[in-house]
Design brief:
Low-confidence stretches: none
Pfam family, one: SMC_N
CATH topology of one domain: Rossmann fold
Number of helices: 19
Largest sheet: 6 strands, antiparallel
Structural class: alpha/beta
Helix content: 55-70%
GO cellular component, one term: bacterial nucleoid
CATH architecture of one domain: 3-Layer(aba) Sandwich
Strand content: 15-25%
Keywords: ATP-binding, Coiled coil, DNA damage, DNA repair, Nucleotide-binding
Function: May be involved in recombinational repair of damaged DNA.
Number of strands: 15
CATH class of one domain: Alpha Beta
Strand order of the largest sheet: 2-1-4-5-6-7
Radius of gyration: 42 Å
InterPro entries: DNA_recomb/repair_RecN, P-loop_NTPase, RecF/RecN/SMC_N
């Protein structure tokens, strides 16, 4: 649930902190007092689109903070926070969003910086905002299938997951086929290009490791004279006229004579002896290399030419020899496919047909499950509508079969309704009034509220345009939802306000030529006055006060009855 909301420099709100409780919280006040601004703040905390217009005039940024409490560790928010590396302590989740004057938003969850898209994902598991204009979702037939699938989630999800995976592979494969079906001129040009490139790469005959060997060989050839000179000096110093090795041999022989007389010279004798034989081996090795050294200027030219060939191939076909060889194999395969295009297309079409058969099977399974759940949805909605005084309404889910696959299968789903006896059901967007749409959406919210895991449901003036017994039915329906989920509701209906477990009054006032919005949690006496005002307008009489008091008493009785049903 949303435990606390803090707002600073937001629209006409200067600095405001509001505490919320479980159950139904109703926000009332005059039009323009700032009720919807509070809901806008919650909407932005859940990742909604921001605007510079939200920043209070004269301020550099707007600051929004929401404290949520979710003690149920099986709630989806725990998995979501773990996915993004956000710690959660004792069920507390703090969403923070700063909207800066440069248009940028800074978002945090439990102190960790997150992107706006991550904030939106997390917010969607905590908050469900339903405004008076949100019923327009029902006016878009393309959205109806998503509402049905949401209702049928438990039965539908495993099959739909398989279908989605297959469908994505199917779309990708169709794009691959489309890339083959190019016009003949482009086909001929590509074949010529591949043939030229393959010929050039075959002639180059690049090999892994050869370039490194050539670089080393070029280094030796370029430094031949210095290598020969210095190696020769080393050899002469060891075995030449300087007799370095002979002198060490004399020292070794002398020490061998001494060690027979004094064991203290044993270690020194062994060291000198090892050095003599090691130097002797080194001299032989140096002499063998010197004998083989031969300067070949033509070989240096060959090496330079070959290395230049490697550089040319890299400029054309890849940064490394490995990349070039991979590209070489790729264009060889593509050339074979292009030269055998007809056979390739036939094989692709066979594979595509097989994929379509698998999709068809899964799509039929989706349709079967949807139709079964559609019947349950229709019955459930009509039951809810009866509670909302639409007893004669007949609601059905209409199915049409698409000619091709889409992300949802081959079903086109649309909601049909008849609100008058004797009239056949017709497309809901074409015949439903605004009040009827609100009641249908409220019916859906009632069915989904206990199953979708949302901790806070917000209704923003969804009761606009209704009155009388319908208003009372809507009030009771909203109150029923609040038994299992926290509900925040902006309302102009006294019936809804009377059902509140917590009642906030929103006022607008002017001080020192600045407009401020204030929020106060009103007690029972002030509730009677506020509900009386909602019933009669600005003039409050003893009779309206009496009616308001009676309405509150009746609401308490009805709320207790609802709670007893859930015990």
């Amino acid at each position: 649930m949303l435990k606390e909301l803090s707002i600073r420099n937001f629209a006409i709100i200067d600095d405001l902190t509001v505490d919320f409780s479980e159950g139904l919280t109703v926000l009332t006040g005059e039009t323009g007092a700032g009720k919807s601004i509070i809901i806008d703040a919650v909407h932005l905390l859940a990742g909604g689109r921001a605007s510079l217009e939200f920043i209070r005039h004269g301020a550099k940024k707007a600051e929004l903070t929401g404290l949520f409490m979710v003690l149920n560790e099986s709630h989806p928010i725990y998995e979501k926070l773990q996915e993004y590396g956000v710690d959660i302590d004792e069920g507390m989740i703090i969403l923070r969003r700063d909207i800066n004057e440069n248009g940028k938003s800074v978002c945090r969850v439990n102190g960790k910086l997150v992107t706006l898209s991550i904030l939106r994902e997390i917010g969607s598991t905590l908050i469900d905002i339903h405004g008076q204009h949100e019923s327009q979702e029902l006016m878009d037939e393309k959205r109806h299938i998503y509402l049905l699938d949401h209702f049928a989630h438990n039965e539908l999800a495993p099959i739909k997951e398989k279908y989605t995976e297959k469908y994505q592979a199917y779309r990708e494969f169709k794009r691959e086929i489309a890339s083959i079906n190019i016009d003949e001129q482009r086909l001929a040009q590509r074949i010529d290009l591949y043939q030229f490139q393959i010929g050039e790469l075959e002639e180059a005959s690049l090999k892994l490791g050869e370039e490194e060997q050539l670089v080393e060989e070029r280094r030796r050839l370029s430094n031949f004279h210095k290598i020969f000179e210095r190696a020769n000096i080393a050899y002469e110093s060891i075995s030449g006229e300087l007799k370095g090795l002979d002198n060490i041999g004399d020292a070794m022989n002398a020490l061998e004579d001494v060690v027979e007389l004094d064991e203290q010279f044993k270690e020194s004798t062994e060291t000198v002896s090892s050095a003599f034989y090691a130097l002797q081996d080194a001299a032989y090795q140096i002499k063998n290399v010197l004998d083989d050294l031969e300067f070949d200027p033509e070989r240096l030219n060959d090496v330079e030419h070959r290395l230049a060939q490697y550089q040319t191939m890299k400029r054309k076909y890849g940064n490394t020899v490995e990349e070039i060889l991979i590209y070489f194999e790729k264009i060889q395969d593509e050339l074979i496919q292009l030269q055998n295009r007809d056979e390739t297309i036939q094989n692709y079409e066979k594979k595509l047909n097989k994929m379509e058969e698998e999709l068809e099977h899964l799509a039929l399974s989706l349709t079967k499950i949807r139709k079964q759940c559609a019947t349950k949805l229709s019955e459930a909605i009509m039951e809810q509508l009866r509670d909302l005084h639409m007893e004669k309404a007949k609601f059905i889910v209409n199915f049409e079969t698409l000619h091709s696959f889409d992300l949802n299968g081959k079903d086109y789903v649309s909601f049909y309704i008849s609100t008058n006896v004797g009239e056949p059901p017709k497309s809901l967007p074409k015949i439903a009034s605004g009040g009827e749409l609100s009641r249908i959406m409220l019916a859906l919210k009632t069915m989904f509220s206990s199953s979708n895991g949302i901790t806070s449901i917000i209704f923003d003036e969804v009761d606009t345009g209704v009155s009388g017994r319908v208003a009372q039915a809507i009030a009771e329906k909203i109150a029923a939802i609040s038994v299992s989920s926290q509900v925040l509701c902006i309302s102009h209906l006294p019936q809804v306000a009377a059902m509140a477990d917590q009642h906030y009054l929103i006022r607008k006032q002017v001080e020192q030529n600045r407009t401020y919005t204030t929020v106060s949690n009103i007690d029972i006496q002030n509730r009677v006055e506020e509900i009386s005002r909602m019933m009669s307008g600005s003039e409050i009489t003893d009779l309206t006060l009496q009616h308001a008091s009676e309405l509150l008493k009746l609401a308490e009785v009805r709320k207790q009855e609802m709670k007893n049903l859930f015990v």
